[in-house]
């Protein structure tokens, strides 16, 4: 097991001009397996890029395909057509073993339900992806992540001894500890109160600004989207709009327009 980090050191920034994530002509059709099935087009020919060291939020009406997009980008689900590149590596042609390794080493995922292992301490949960890969933590980076989540004094506690917001900050640290090409977050604040949400979103924001990380987050909340550099709006499985330097009010106005169109 990796040892706990020291305090007081600074994180390390990755630099590259390749987008963190790029997808071309991505489609996902559910229920196309056998004749007579009802088919649902969850993704409809989506081409999208996520630059490094940026925080992007994805918003859209319920059922518009946001989670499907995140799962296909992260290699948790297979698109029906199209290609996904993680840091320049095309993922559809990878063997199952290589895809598993890529997901473990180069992609972080934060779920609404935290998904921490209950028998491990906070620290053991955070370094689990490194342990599975047989890697040691970059001490300076691990210190910056631990200081960033503000839970150095709780690292020996099990998830059941932590609040929901604290557990989600541990989950964010676990997603970041490998210095992945990208962290995907699917409704990371959906189960949290507003104070805990602000703690989690503030940490994700600082992970981009101070640690050079890349975050792509699905959210229903305009206040959460306002932490991002850019918001992509989704409807009917397609990207239908974009807002840079969002504020909660501008996001809300766009969402109202979208919901009028969709209803
Ligand atoms: N396994 C599945 N089988 C069949 N249809 C599915 C499956 N998963 C998702 N869908 C459908 O695909 C569409 C997109 O779903 P998705 O969960 O990606 O939307 P979403 O925008 O994330 O929705 P929400 O905001 O409600 O979470 C929906 O019509 C949904 O019913």
From TrEMBL:
The keyword Transmembrane helix does not apply. GO terms for cellular component: membrane protein complex; plasma membrane. Residues 21-261 form the ABC transporter domain. Pfam families: ABC_tran (PF00005). InterPro entries: AAA+_ATPase (IPR003593), ABC_transporter-like_ATP-bd (IPR003439), ABC_transpr_LolD-like (IPR015854), MacB-like_ATP-bd (IPR017911), P-loop_NTPase (IPR027417). It comes from the Bacteria. SUPFAM superfamilies: P-loop containing nucleoside triphosphate hydrolases (SSF52540). The keyword Transport applies. GO terms for molecular function: ATP binding; ATP hydrolysis activity; transmembrane transporter activity. PROSITE patterns: ABC_TRANSPORTER_2. SMART domains: AAA. Keywords: ATP-binding, Nucleotide-binding, Transport. This is Putative ABC transport system ATP-binding protein.
């Amino acid at each position: 097991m990796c040892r706990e980090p020291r305090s007081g050191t600074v994180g390390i920034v990755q630099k590259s001009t390749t987008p963190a994530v790029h997808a071309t002509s991505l489609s996902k059709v559910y229920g196309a397996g056998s004749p007579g099935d009802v088919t649902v087009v969850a993704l409809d020919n989506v081409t999208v890029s996520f630059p490094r060291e940026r925080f992007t939020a994805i918003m859209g009406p319920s059922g518009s395909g946001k989670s499907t997009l995140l799962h296909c980008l992260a290699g948790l689900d297979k698109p029906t057509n199209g290609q996904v590149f993680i840091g320049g590596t095309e993922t559809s042609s990878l063997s199952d073993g290589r895809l598993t390794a890529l997901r473990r080493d180069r992609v972080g995922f934060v779920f609404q339900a935290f998904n921490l292992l209950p028998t491990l301490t906070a620290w053991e949960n955070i370094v689990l992806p490194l342990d599975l890969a047989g890697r040691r933590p970059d001490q300076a980076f691990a210190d910056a992540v631990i200081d960033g989540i503000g839970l150095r004094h709780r690292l020996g506690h099990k998830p059941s001894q932590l609040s929901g917001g604290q557990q989600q900050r541990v989950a964010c640290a676990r997603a970041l500890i490998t210095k992945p090409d990208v962290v995907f977050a699917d409704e990371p604040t959906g189960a949290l109160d507003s104070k805990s949400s602000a703690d989690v979103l503030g940490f994700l924001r600082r992970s981009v600004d101070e640690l050079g990380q890349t975050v792509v987050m699905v959210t229903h909340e305009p206040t959460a989207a306002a932490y991002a550099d850019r918001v992509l709006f989704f409807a009917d499985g397609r990207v239908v709009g974009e807002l840079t330097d969002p504020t909660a009010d501008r996001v809300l106005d766009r969402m109202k327009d979208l919901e009028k169109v969709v209803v």
